[in-house]
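Section 3.1: Structural characterization of target chains.
Under the original work plan, the team committed to producing a structural model for every single-chain target entering the pipeline before any wet-lab resources were allocated. The record below documents one such target. The sequence was received from the expression subgroup and is listed exactly as submitted; it comprises 188 residues.
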Amino acid sequence: MFSMAMQRLSSYGKLVRPLFCFVLIANFMLAGSTAEGQEKKGDPEFLSVAFGAFDFNRQKDQGAEFRLEYRSDKKLLNLFKPFGAGAYSLSGHGFLGGGLLMDLYFGRRWVVTPSLAPHLYFGGDSDLDLDFPLQFRSQLEVAYRLDNRERIGLALSHYSNASLGDDNPGTESIMLYYSLPLDLNLGR
């Protein structure tokens, strides 16, 4: 009975591991968020486009990946911002989802953005099948903020089914982001 309970707890732990990692990273980096009062000033909502390399590390089914994201300026719990994302790789993998991100400011120019989002997954083939329709994308982006609040960033992402499927191959992407502020008063 004890071993059955430990096994169930272990499988549950695999499910929440991405969320735990996100919270841990966020708390570790929170000290940077107070730089120059940026959290009081806030940023506008963004439309972000990205391109990069899908499955660049394991190279089972690599290809170009393209993303489009909407990043809200509204905060939940005065800390997290919701976002929605769509992605497609030329190797036939697609993702559609949304989650939470956190902008951490280091000085006036640098923004580090950890995020976590469940995604619906479609595609896959014999080279790489992520084995479950629900994938979790965890990401860390480092961006440079221009005077008009546009951002240019580099992000590392991991897609995982959190062991919900029979197999959990997971994969990584490295992406170059351009984030366009959606407010018209860019000079503030």
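Helices lie at 2-29, 38-41.
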